[in-house]
Amino acid sequence: MDDTDFDKALITAAFGIAAVEGWRSVSVVNAARSANLPLDRARARFAAAPAILQRFGTLADQAALVDADETGSPRDRLFDLLMRRFDAFQPHRAGIIALLESLPAYPATAFLLTACTAASMAWMLEAAGLSSRGIAGTLRVKGLVAVWLYTLRCWRRDDSSDLSQTMAALDRALGRAEQIGGWLEGRGPGAAGPKPFPEPPPAPDSPASDEANIGGLDENPGPGLAP
User: Fold this and answer.
1) Is 158 strand, coil or helix?
2) What is the tens place of the pLDDT at every residue in 156-173?
3) Helix, strand, coil share (%) of the chain residues, nearest 5
């Protein structure tokens, strides 16, 4: 088993535990034992549970970037890239939702995912042919983080087999940002004043702010997740 397969097996086990017992029960040791993986290698690959999320975010980015389309408009390319990220989330859906629900109790994890999300969105912008550097690039990253978080909230409630609701939400968010945010041209989200996206209602029986903290998940650039 190479490192990538090892990491995927441990990540799958971690989200499986989260789905059943909640994120509070997830540790590298528990995930490794659940997946019958050697603990010494798990320790070498993952220092602690947050590292599982960082690695998952990187793998989700890689899944989005494989054979990334270089044709079409930046908006079309971003749509494709972000939907590929959601496709990578799907096998771990229950565990990710459990993580989202637990984030208010884990501010350090939420902060980490915030930074990782911004880094992931910078990668998506660059892959779509848009710079994420400088002042204009920073504004683009902020705009795409807003798009991602809005769509993530809709994904959480989307029980369709083809993610049609998520696709519709992403298309709405990108269109709204393009119309009034101007961030594709580097002016930044909401430059004209109004909020770029309508606020979707929170998922039933969940804190309205859960998804605002995941890759995950805020809008400050940082190192590499993000659910």
Assistant:
1) coil
2) 999 888 999 999 999 999
3) 70, 0, 30
